[in-house]
Amino acid sequence: MSREPFISAGMGFTARGCFDIFAAAGGEYKAVDETFPITVTNGTVSITFTRGSANVDYPKVDAIAIVPSGPPVIGVSISPTTASVVEGATRQFTVTVVNDPKNAGVNWTSTGGMINPTGLFTAPATTGAYSVTATSVSDPTKTASATVTITPPPPALALSCSGLVCTITPTNIPSGTAYSITVTSDGTSATATGAVP
Q1: Please, what is the Cα angle at 57 between 53 and 59, to 5 degrees?
Q2: Which of 49, 74, 77, 189 shows a CA-CA span of 20 to 30 A to 35?
């Protein structure tokens, strides 16, 4: 009887310990084929065989094969993942696709507004939260999405003057809003800047 632990030190775990080869093979001079799932990092796998505590026969290893479990999984990521866009304005989104053997790219969709094949999003004229999604052409189950918040445009300002007194409308401008006002009279201009108190 031969008992031999099969240790895969490079993967950080024991794939087979105290292995009774005779029992596994079902008799003498019979081969045993074992399969272990592993994760390969940086293209390297370290495998170590260590003699068991029974101190008996060494087994014979005829071959070791590392076989990919399947094709690489396509991955899709989008940037930015969140954005704030004013009504009617545009925002460019970019996409990264990995492990696509066809290099087929993505299809862009949005729940509001419009987005063109290059990822340029045009905001709708309605405020709210919307989604922009990039879907892999090669594998439509692989997608990435971004959340877009549509905000109203800033209020249009009007300036009316009577003599040396000027009034800005609307008057409900948020506190802290920066302003720059230029007044021209008889070819002479004067500019005032500041922030709404």
Answers
A1: 105
A2: 74
Q: What is the pLDDT along the chain (197 residues), one digit of tens a residue?
A: 344 444 444 445 555 666 677 777 787 777 777 777 777 777 777 777 666 665 555 656 777 877 777 778 899 999 999 999 999 999 999 999 999 989 999 999 999 999 999 999 999 999 999 999 999 999 999 999 999 999 988 776 677 777 667 776 666 666 777 777 777 777 788 787 877 76
Domains in the chain and their CATH numbers? 1-69 (no CATH), 75-151 (2.60.40.1080), 158-195 (no CATH)
- Start-to-end CA distance of the chain, whole Å, equals 90
Whole-prediction pTM: 0.53
